[in-house]
UniProtKB/TrEMBL annotation:
This protein's record includes keyword Transcription regulation: yes
Name of the protein this chain belongs to: Transcription antitermination protein NusB
InterPro entries assigned: NusB-like_sf, NusB_fam, NusB_RsmB_TIM44
UniProt source species: Methylocaldum marinum
Coiled coil: 51-78
Function: Involved in transcription antitermination. Required for transcription of ribosomal RNA (rRNA) genes. Binds specifically to the boxA antiterminator sequence of the ribosomal RNA (rrn) operons.
Gene Ontology biological process terms, A to Z: DNA-templated transcription termination; transcription antitermination
A GO molecular-function annotation: RNA binding
SUPFAM superfamilies named among the record's database cross-references: NusB-like
Entry similarity comment: Belongs to the NusB family.
Keywords linked to the UniProt accession: Coiled coil, RNA-binding, Transcription, Transcription antitermination, Transcription regulation
Length: 198
C-alpha cells in the first residue's frame, strides 16, 4: 500500500482527471474522494476484524481497494482482477495525507495557466490535446515542481513515472518523464546543480 503522500497524489490524479473531463465542482469531487476513502477504511477494518459484511459491502470494499490500494501489474502478469482476499492480503487500510490531497486538487486549477505554460514549452502538442490521464499526471507533477520546492525534484519525477505506470498507456511513463525532466531542469536549476556537485 502507498504511503499517505503517494496515495494523496494518486487520488489527486484521479480527481483532477475527473475535473478535466466534467468541469465538476472541486468541493464535490473532494467530498466524493474523501468519502470513498473513509468508507474503504471502515469496511477494510471490519473485514479484517472478522465482521460479516453484506454482499453490497463486499462489492464496495473490493471496488474501493481496487481504486485506492492495488498497484497495477503488467497485463502479462495479472490480466484479471484479483479476488478480494488477495487484495486484502496486499493492502493496509488506506491512509491519505488529506491536506496534501486538497492542496493538489485545488492547486492545479488555481495555477492552471502557469502550469500549462511550463508544460507546453516541452510538450510535443498543446497541453489540451495530451491524453487526459497523462495531462492530469503532468499537471499534478508540474504543480509540485513549481510550487512545492521543499519536495526534491527526483521525488516528483519518480512519483510521476509511477503514476504513469499505474494509470497510463504502455509507454506513458517515458513521455511523462521526458517532459517533467525538462520542466525540472528549467525550474529547479539550482537544486539540480547542487545534486550533481555532491
Amino acid at each position: 500500500m502507498s504511503n499517505p503522500r503517494t496515495l494523496a497524489r494518486r487520488c489527486a490524479v484521479q480527481a483532477v482527471y475527473q475535473w478535466q473531463l466534467s468541469d465538476a465542482n472541486l468541493s464535490e469531487i473532494e467530498t466524493q474522494f474523501l468519502g470513498e476513502l473513509k468508507d474503504a477504511k471502515v469496511l477494510f477494518r471490519r473485514y479484517k476484524n472478522g465482521y460479516d459484511l453484506t454482499e453490497n459491502e463486499l462489492n464496495l470494499l473490493e471496488e474501493l481497494l481496487e481504486k485506492y490500494c492495488r498497484q497495477r501489474e503488467t497485463e502479462s502478469r495479472q490480466p484479471e482482477r484479483p479476488p478480494l482476499n488477495d487484495l486484502i492480503e496486499h493492502c493496509r487500510a488506506p491512509e491519505i495525507n488529506t491536506r496534501f490531497f486538497k492542496e493538489l486538487l485545488h492547486g492545479v486549477p488555481e495555477h492552471l495557466r502557469t502550469i500549462d505554460e511550463a508544460l507546453s514549452e516541452f510538450a510535443d502538442r498543446p497541453v489540451a490535446e495530451i491524453d487526459p490521464v497523462e495531462r492530469a499526471i503532468l499537471r499534478i507533477s508540474a504543480y509540485e515542481l513549481l510550487f512545492r520546492l521543499e519536495t526534491p525534484y527526483r521525488v516528483v519525477l519518480n512519483e510521476g513515472i509511477d503514476l504513469a505506470k499505474q494509470f497510463g498507456a504502455a509507454e506513458s511513463h517515458r513521455y511523462i518523464n521526458g517532459i517533467l525532466d525538462r520542466v525540472a531542469r528549467k525550474h529547479r536549476t539550482a537544486e539540480i546543480q547542487m545534486r550533481h556537485k555532491s
